[in-house]
């Protein structure tokens, strides 16, 4: 997630307009009121559990 946020901040996804996603970066980095960043590790962990459960159900 750190790399993704840095790429948003640095204009990687919009080189022709590097500040295009500035508001998204600022929202996530400084005002994460929906706790998207704070809860990301838990989200990834649970997503992996879901993947494993799906694989087991397919066997």
TrEMBL record:
Superkingdom of the source species: Eukaryota
Cited SUPFAM superfamilies: UDP-Glycosyltransferase/glycogen phosphorylase (SSF53756)
GO MF terms, alphabetically ordered: glycogen phosphorylase activity
GO biological process: carbohydrate metabolic process
Transmembrane segments: none
Gene3D superfamilies: Glycogen Phosphorylase B (3.40.50.2000)
Record Pfam families: Phosphorylase (PF00343)
Family in the record: Belongs to the glycogen phosphorylase family.
Protein name listed in UniProt: Alpha-1,4 glucan phosphorylase
Organism whose genome encodes this protein: Schistosoma mattheei
Lineage: Eukaryota, Metazoa, Spiralia, Lophotrochozoa, Platyhelminthes
């Amino acid at each position: 997630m750190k790399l993704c946020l840095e790429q948003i901040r640095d204009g990687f996804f919009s080189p022709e307009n590097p500040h295009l996603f500035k508001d998204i970066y600022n929202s996530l980095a400084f005002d994460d009121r929906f706790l998207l960043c704070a809860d990301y590790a838990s989200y990834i962990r649970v997503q992996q559990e879901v993947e494993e459960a799906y694989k087991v159900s397919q066997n």
